[in-house]
Structure formats: structure tokens, C-alpha cells
UniProtKB/TrEMBL annotation:
The lineage of its organism: Bacteria, Bacillati, Bacillota, Clostridia, Peptostreptococcales. Pfam families: TetR_N. It comes from Geosporobacter ferrireducens. Residues 7-67 form the HTH tetR-type domain. This is HTH tetR-type domain-containing protein. The keyword Nucleus does not apply.
Amino acid sequence: MARITDPQKIENVKRAAMEIIVEYGYRGASIAAIAKKAGVSAGYLYLHYSSKEDLLDDLINTNLAEIRNTFYQFAVTSTSIYGFFQNTIRTLFELAKEDPIYVQLVATLVLDVDAEKILHEKNEEFKYRMLEKVFEISNYTGECHEYISEENIMLTLMTIPFRYILLKIKEEGYERFFQEEQVEKITRMCFNSLR
């Protein structure tokens, strides 16, 4: 007789994986630590995920797909590079206030070289499509330096806001660092790096 999957246990596993990756990084996360934090056995976890990479893949497909789609929509609908950065950063800061573990996971995965190897394949098409749109905006508006590259845009977007989040979210009363004033400050910082 087939075992029935408990959706709550799976959600607990995903949340535990998020917390462990945030605390120890992708390399430091283990199936045993995730299972222990989720209150399930490692065997139970292996019934649903063949490896840590498989679990990360599930997190990316379920939890991170929405934020990727949101960023892509900003790239499609923005009429300026400044507006694109502003919308993206505002969304990240709102997430930081609503679900600090989730936004820390996103930041950790973006900045973690070990996770990047796994994310690379999944994100390559997304990054290419989004950067293509942002680069089109840059060429159309002339806001950025004429020698700006897609790599410059990606480095700016994937470094400054995410590093800021990881630095500030650990402070007591961290919500004060994610207000509109800071959205503007970090947006200007990103925008100025491309001028």
C-alpha cells in the first residue's frame, strides 16, 4: 500500500531547508540537519527528495519562481532603469518585512557560489530574458553609461540589494532598514553604479 504524503510535513521540510540554508549556506546544509529541524526522519525526507539538490530544485520551482516572475514583469513594464531597480528593491524590502527567512533564502542563494552552480542552469534562461529587457531599457533611455554591459547590470542587481538585506535583517528592529527611504537610497546606489 502506498504511503500518503502529509502536505504539512513537506511544508515543514521546505521551511526547515530554508532556515538551514540561511544559517549555514548551501554547502553547510545537510539532509540530516534539515530532517531534524523539520521533525522528520532523514528516511522520510529521502522518500520525497533524492538529494539536497533535488530539495533545492523543489524550493526554486515552488518558492522562488514567483519572485523571478515578478522581477521579469518589472523588466518588461519598466520605462527606466531607475524604475526597474526601484520596483525590484521595493519588492525585496517588502518581502524582508513580511517573511525574513524567505528573503534571506533568496539573498543567500543569489550570493552563494555553491548554490549558484545548481541555480545556474535553472536561472540561465530567466537571467537572459530579464537582462535582455533591462538592457533594452538602458539603450532606449540612455540612462546608463554607453559601455554598460548585461554583466554590469546583473552584478549590480544581484549584489548591492541582496548584501544589504543580509547585513541589515539580522539587526534588532530590522524593519526600519526596509522603509521607502532605504528603497530610494539603495536604488540610487545601484543606479549610480551603472552611470
